[in-house]
Every structure is written in structure tokens, then in C-alpha cells.
Automatic annotation (TrEMBL):
The name this protein goes by in its record: Uncharacterized protein
Keywords: Oxidoreductase
Family listed: Belongs to the short-chain dehydrogenases/reductases (SDR) family.
Lineage: Eukaryota, Metazoa, Spiralia, Lophotrochozoa, Mollusca
Molecular function terms, GO-annotated: oxidoreductase activity
PROSITE patterns: ADH_SHORT (PS00061)
Length: 319
């Protein structure tokens, strides 16, 4: 009897939580949202969706092509920003443009730190300091700098900050610089959430698995691995061997064919819920691989996770 009572209680709790998550905020047409990385991918799709939902959108783009595409397909509520998240001058210029295009003494409801890059693909020994600097500049310090610049505007509305992390911020199954950048976003977002709670500002993290976007292209990864290997010192090349290089290209290709989901709208759904739900989630793990593979691996003892994930890896020439 106690077992059924417990099961019923858990089911009721889950249903109530699901129901509460469905309650929306109101008056989208009076809310302003800033999004970075809107040239393509998730940011581009989110900007379009929010525009169609009557939000006022400031879409940060680093290319004129991306900005032009948004202006052609969206309403005049959408305003494009020439925004490079690695440039302090560009960020400050964007803040000034946003302030001049919102009602006086008001703020923005949402800041979405979506901009991100994968960088070169390769093993730790194959990467240079410049590789780390490039990825961290966008994925981590871009989030930090953009958040600091726009935070006063978010605080005015008791709004929300939504940061793009990754399930790789839970389990280190990608290149070192990318994993580091996403673990850092997770940590930063946690501290930010605690410290902004007294101001009524909430912080949310999106943790996607693998989706069919430009940064998970098989061809891009293949070329990156080949180029990285070709530039290695002969001693390091010999330690790994061309067979190993070819093997990891093959395994990476096969894995992406299995894991890469075409349902990119699920990530946009998560972003949208974080911005529109009255009681949004703190974290949104998105994708079958994130929820059924990487998150469970992250909860296992290290030695078990090492054995399971290690089964997917090839062995280099070195004994």
C-alpha cells in the first residue's frame, strides 16, 4: 500500500510541476530581448520566433548576410545589432543602440547569450594556446562581458538571462577547449543565479546535445583533424600515427551521424520556454543524447564512465 501511495504522490508532483511550467508571462509585445549570435543556427531561429510572438528583438549579428536575412523575414519590431562579443567597443556600442531604441527609463526582459564556436578539432596535444584563446573568447568571456554590459537593463525589469552551455559542460566528451568553455559557462551561470536572485533576476542554462548545425558538420570536423595533424611536430605525429587520425575521423563521423538531431527547434523551444514561462527551469538539457547518454554518464563513478566512453575511442601508436 505504501508503495502505491508513494508512486501516486510522485506522479501527482510531476503532473503539478508540468502544469505550473505551462503558465506563461504576459504582454510579449511590451518586452525587449537581446540575443547574440543570430547570423545562423539557434540564435537566428530564436530571433525569428520571438519576432513572430510579438517580442521586440535586438538580434546581434557579426555578418551583414545574417542581419540582412533577418530584416527581410521579420517585422520592424526586430532590430539588428552589429555585435562582436569578443570586442568591448562593439558590446558598448550595442548597449547604446539598445538604450536608444527602448522606452526611456525601461530595460530589457531577456538577454540570451547564444553566440558560440566549436573551434579547431583535435587532441589536447594537438591544440595550441591560440586555439584555447579563440574558443574561450567567444564561448566564455563573451558571455561574461555581454552579461556585465547589459545587466543594468535586465535588472530594471527583473528579467532573465539565458546562457548557452552544452551537455559537454557536464561530461567532457569533446575537444578540451570547447569543454572548458562550457564547464566555465555552467559555473559562471550558477554564481550569477545566486547573486542576482535578490534583484529578482533569474538565470537559465541551455544544455544541448548534438544537433545539425554548422559547428557539427562532418566535413568541417574531418578537415580540422587533418589540418591539425598535418601541422604537428614529427615526434607527435609518430606518437599518434595516421591510422589513429583516420580512425578518430571515422568514429567521429559515425557518432555524429547517429547523434546529430535535425530537430533544432527543440533548442529554440527551450530558449522560448526560459523566456516566456512564469516558472521556467534552471537548466534545459535538450536532445536524446544529452538526456539518455551524456547526463547519465556524468552521474556515474569516474571509472565506470571512463570504461564506457573509452570503448568508443581508438588507441594511438604509443604503447
Amino acid at each position: 500500500m505504501m508503495i502505491w501511495f508513494t508512486i501516486g504522490g510522485c506522479a501527482a508532483f510531476c503532473f503539478l510541476q508540468w502544469l505550473i511550467r505551462k503558465i506563461p508571462v504576459w504582454k510579449y509585445s511590451s518586452k525587449y530581448v537581446v540575443i547574440t549570435g543570430c547570423d545562423s543556427g539557434f540564435g537566428h531561429l530564436l530571433a525569428k520566433r520571438l519576432d513572430h510572438m510579438d517580442f521586440h528583438v535586438f538580434a546581434g549579428c557579426i555578418t551583414e548576410k545574417g542581419a540582412t536575412e533577418l530584416r527581410k523575414t521579420c517585422s520592424n519590431r526586430l532590430f539588428t545589432l552589429d555585435l562582436d562579443v569578443t570586442s568591448a567597443a562593439s558590446i558598448q556600442k550595442a548597449v547604446k543602440l539598445v538604450k536608444s531604441n527602448i522606452p526611456q527609463d525601461s530595460g530589457i526582459w531577456g538577454l540570451v547569450n547564444n553566440a558560440g564556436i566549436a573551434g579547431e578539432t583535435g587532441h589536447v596535444e594537438w591544440l595550441t594556446r591560440a586555439d584555447y584563446d579563440q574558443v574561450m573568447a567567444v564561448n566564455t568571456f563573451g558571455v561574461v562581458d555581454v552579461t556585465k554590459a547589459f545587466l543594468p537593463l535586465v535588472r530594471k525589469t527583473r528579467g532573465r538571462i539565458v546562457n548557452m552551455a552544452s551537455v559537454m559542460g557536464r561530461f567532457p566528451a569533446a575537444t578540451a577547449h570547447y569543454v572548458m568553455s562550457k564547464f566555465a559557462v555552467e559555473g559562471y551561470s550558477g554564481v550569477l543565479r545566486y547573486q542576482l536572485r535578490p534583484f529578482g533576476v533569474s538565470v537559465h542554462v541551455i544544455e544541448p546535445g548534438f544537433f545539425q548545425t554548422g559547428i557539427t558538420s562532418n566535413e568541417l570536423i574531418r578537415k580540422s583533424l587533418e589540418n591539425k595533424y598535418a601541422r604537428l611536430e614529427p615526434e607527435i605525429q609518430e606518437a599518434y600515427g595516421k591510422e589513429y587520425r583516420d580512425a578518430i575521423i571515422t568514429r567521429a563521423t559515425h557518432f555524429l551521424q547517429l547523434a546529430n538531431s535535425p530537430k533544432v527547434h527543440k533548442v529554440v523551444d527551450a530558449y522560448t520556454h526560459a523566456l516566456t514561462a512564469r516558472f521556467p527551469k534552471t537548466r534545459y538539457s535538450v536532445g536524446w543524447d544529452a538526456n539518455l547518454f551524456f547526463r547519465p554518464l556524468s552521474l556515474l563513478p569516474d571509472w565506470v564512465a571512463d570504461l564506457m566512453f573509452g570503448a568508443f575511442l581508438s588507441k594511438p601508436n604509443s604503447k
